[in-house]
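Chapter review: from sequence to fold.
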Amino acid sequence: AESLKMFRVDVPLHVLNGDSVTLKCQFSLDKKEHIYSVRWYKDNEEFFRYLPRFKPQIVAHKVEGVHVDVSSCDISF
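The token string follows.
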């Protein structure tokens, strides 16, 4: 049995400089499973991290060309 099932990852292929985008990662877990982390990268540099068992749960790293609006992050399972 698989504990993590990926349904969808939405990432635009092309974005104009200065435009805003929304990144989405939709998945499900078996009832007994817990997610350790969700991470997003640009050019091999991590710019977003969600770790539900740590404080703070959401961390945004400075990466050139990326701005994360942490207040708009919607983490729901």
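Two observations follow directly from the output. The first strand starts at residue 4 and ends at 10. DSSP finds no helices and five strands in the chain.
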